[in-house]
Amino acid sequence: MRRVKSLWNGLTIFAFLAGLLAALVASVAFPSQMAAAADLPSHITLTWAGDPRTTQTIAWKTDALTQDGQVQYWAVLPGKTEERQTLPAQVERVDSNWGTLTIHTVTLTGLDPGSSYAYRVGREGAWSEPYQFTTAPDRPQRLKFMIFGDSQSINYNTWRTTLQQAYQANQDAAFFINMGDLVDVGQDYGQWDAWFNASQGVLENIPCMPLVGNHETYGPGGKLAMPALFTAQFKLPLNGPAGLKGQVYSFDYGDIHFVMLDTQIGEEGRFVPDMLEQQKRWLEQDLAAAQQKWKLVFLHRAPYNNKAAGNEAIKAAFAPIIEQYHADLVFTAHDHVYAHTPPLFGGTPADSPSQGTIYVATGRSGSKTYADSIAREWNDFFYNPQDEPNYLTVEEESNSLTVKAFKQSGSLIDTWRITKGQLAEVSN
Fold first, then answer.
1. Sequence ranges of the chain with CATH classification 2.60.40.380
2. Residues of the chain with CATH 3.60.21.10
3. Please, which contacts does 37-41 make with residues 24 or more away whose CB atoms are closer than 8 Å?
């Protein structure tokens, strides 16, 4: 009996020591695994901070405070393996209600127009999967891009479905534009995390060129702030007016000049009191200098809106300049409806698009709807997408622009085309 008890005590001690050793191994291995996971890139996003023909800006997030993020990229050529080039990232620490985030950014330069490149981001031991992008051609024969109205949601499954189905149906789209109110509470990083996760599979492959909406300025509890999480995560051209760089900007793609404005005077005016005056001066100079065949302007709040409360200050600030320098189309959001006007000049219908500007409300791509948005006297077409979300495509070819509005499921809502000098309906 004494021998059995001694044997039992020996086995117990052995089991205890084995368990202790396993715990020690786990205590070393688990933090290592956690550290490796924190190093992994997420929220990989393409934008343009420079010329779309010869540059590509890539940003991503890591949870770890890593300093040595990198991009590796190489040309994709049939039957040829190109040498990989490696560039270090700029690193930015961003405070949020989720703690400190690390944003990495690289702008690739000296790229060949109209060419495909593969890339991956991260660092040794923590690389992303490889992805691919294509630079803008010098003189594109045809261009298609997508436009999404407000994607704000309680959860972002609706936005996921809208974006992913639109992308699958439009694989030839060069990029997409989100019209502001990407998220419902712009100072809550949990919503940005959900938005980026829902956008995975698209943001890594085509650029996103977004606008600031009023909800980008909202914090938990209703506190207002400048849209710091927006500007930290989307690396956009810094050619806008002082105090609004990264929020107000313009860029060219082929024959189109794109202008993005910031209409959040009620939210941001306390931080940038003269934001409308700054933008008016900048907009006039920008449109006067534009040489492209087409000029398109994007605003979150609409000069010609579909809610009871108007945006008279925005209309007074921007519409005269837009129409003086003849922007062809102005795309808007905020009211969560799809609608468009005839060509307008000074609030009056013009004889043709060559004599006025068409204002297009882009609808909603998220889950939020407004039953009180109504057709107004200036609408040629009106549709309130309460049944399902929607998106737009714009195609530029030869001497025409074609605008199509689709439901999330792919059903066509509306289609029309402008050419230089006339407006023509397009058969379905």
1. 42-134
2. 142-425
3. 37/63, 38/62, 38/63, 38/64, 39/64, 39/66, 39/122, 39/123, 39/125, 39/126, 40/122, 40/126, 40/128, 41/69, 41/104, 41/121, 41/122, 41/126, 41/127, 41/128
Please answer whether residues 380 and 418 qualify as being in contact, where contact means their C-beta atoms are separated by less than 8 angstroms: no
Neighbours of 419 (CB within 10 A): 15
Sign of CA dihedral 345, 336, 422, 398: positive
Instruction: Dump the DSSP string for 186-223.
Output: TT-HHHHHHHHHHHTTTTTTS-B-----GGGGB-GGG-
Is the separation of the CB atoms in 116 and 132 below 8 Å?
yes
CA distances from 341 to 13, 287, 361, 375 (A): 83, 21, 9, 11
The neighbour count for residue 255, using CB atoms within 10 Å, is: 17
Residue 310, judged by CB atoms within 10 A of its CB (0-12, 13-18, 19+), counts as middle
Q: How far apart are CA 138 and CA 135, in angstroms?
A: 9
Q: What is the pTM of this model?
A: 0.90
Which of the following CATH numbers is that of domain 142-425: 1.10.760.10, 3.50.50.60, 3.60.21.10, 3.30.360.10? 3.60.21.10
pLDDT in tens, 95-119: 999 999 999 999 999 999 999 999 9
The band of 392, judged by pLDDT with boundaries at 50, 70 and 90, is very high
223-273 confidence digits (pLDDT tens) = 999 999 999 999 999 999 999 999 999 999 999 999 999 999 999 999 999
| Alpha-carbon gap, residue 265 to 364, rounded angstroms | 22
Q: How far is CA 250 from CA 53, 263, 399, 404, in A?
A: 15, 15, 22, 23
The CA-atom distances, in angstroms, between 399 and each of 255, 417, 421, 422 are 10, 10, 10, 11
Closest CA to 167 of 129, 132, 199, 130: 199
| The pLDDT value given to residue 9 | 47
CATH class of segment(s) 42-134 = mainly beta
Q: How far apart are CA 108 and CA 74, in angstroms?
A: 11
Token pair 């300093």: residue: 67
Q: In this structure, how many other beta carbons lie within 10 angstroms of the beta carbon of residue 82?
A: 12
